[in-house]
Amino acid sequence: MADYPPRVLMLTQPLAAPVSALAHDDFSIVGPWTVSGDWPAWLDENGAGISTAISSGIDRFDAALIDRLPDLKHIAVLGAGLDGIDLDAMAARGIAVTSGGAIHSGEVADQAVGMMIAARRRLLESDAWVRQGRWASEGRFPPTRSLRHQKVGILGLGHIGIAIAERVQPFCPEIAWWGPRDKPARWPRKESLMALAAWSDILFIAARAHDDTRGLVDAAVIDALGPAGLLVNISRGFVVDEDALIAALRDGRLGQAALDVFDPEPATAERWADVPNTLLAPHNAGATIESIMALCAHAVDTVKRVHRGEAVA
User: Fold this and answer.
1) Which listed residue (134, 145, 283, 305) is catalytic?
2) Distance of alpha carbon 51 from its chain centroid, rounded?
3) Do β-strands 202-205 and 230-233 pair in parallel, antiparallel, or remain unpaired?
């Protein structure tokens, strides 16, 4: 007999509370914090019957885990990133994986564009100029870069990349993009990532985050962006060669970087303490109060539909 209410696996405890509240009594959450003793051993004894899971996208769903879940059929990922999901293992087992990336793409794009403006107009340094008394003692703050004539490149034109393009259009009407697959778009696609970086003044990293994009933005791409360029990363830290990025910033081969994501996370203060011309955020671009609840609601609805036997895209 099937479990009732159905059990749904989660590995990220902080998100379990809003998910449980939205689920009411339609399903119950199980995770490492809900059991006593050894979690893998518990799964070996109790994993059968769990047909659905909710993932943050970062927590690791790999072959070793799903071997303990013989009835798993569907993983609902809260956000856009799938870097914690072994997609090959899921495909081999016939486990469907869906994401809610479109739901909070606007919030991520808002922060990406906000970071672009803050970096180019040096808003944090301007704030410090006033607070430290330098306006009174040294005079006016040095001029910053205009956004009007900047060429904006976007690596990855998915939901978030499109939302970024729509938001930067009033500032920077010259927009281009690159991704491994062409698609209909309002903006031209460059022939390669290198060509996009060489053309761009500002390069947004919005690529799909998985093993096939690891290190995609390497030292050569960073150098192509150049000493006047700004790199904005809201994808995942590992999409950019972070050591090469730091070296380029220190050497002046890259002008600026605005980063919401790092490799690894959490980033340490020591690693970034003496890296110049950077604007840093703690991987919170998509984490508004409203978006978290919307993502949880979408995941809950997906799981309920799967349990009812409905098709889920």
Assistant:
1) 283
2) 27
3) parallel
Q: Counting every residue, how long is the chain? A: 313
CATH of domain 105-280: 3.40.50.720
Cα–Cα distance, 272 to 228 (Å, whole number): 20
Report d(CA 151, CA 147) in Å as an integer.
9
Common-topology check for domains 7-101+290-307 and 105-280: yes
> How many Å apart are CA 28 and CA 21, to the nearest integer?
10
In the annotation, is 166 catalytic?
no
Q: Which helix (H) or strand (E) holds 53?
A: strand 52-55
**For this structure, is 159 an active site residue?**
no
Domain spanning 7-101+290-307, CATH architecture: 3-Layer(aba) Sandwich (3.40)
Instruction: Give CA–CA dist 250/265, Å, rounded.
Output: 21
CA separation for the pair 227, 225 (Å, rounded):
7
Measuring CA to CA, which residue among 299, 302, 301, 304 is closest to residue 16? 299
Marked catalytic residue, from 120, 236, 298, 307: 236
Predicted confidence (pLDDT) per residue in 152-183, tens digit: 999 999 999 999 999 999 988 899 999 999 99
> What type of residue sits at position 186?
R
> Which of 24, 60, 149, 265 is an active site residue?
265
Each residue's pLDDT tens digit, 211-263: 788 999 999 999 999 999 999 999 999 999 999 999 999 999 999 999 999 99
- Within 13 Å, how many C-alpha atoms sit on residue 242's CB side? 19
Kindly report the number of other CB atoms within 10 A of residue 146's CB atom: 11
Catalytic (active site) residue 283: yes
List the domain boundaries for the chain.
7-101+290-307, 105-280
State the pTM of this model: 0.89
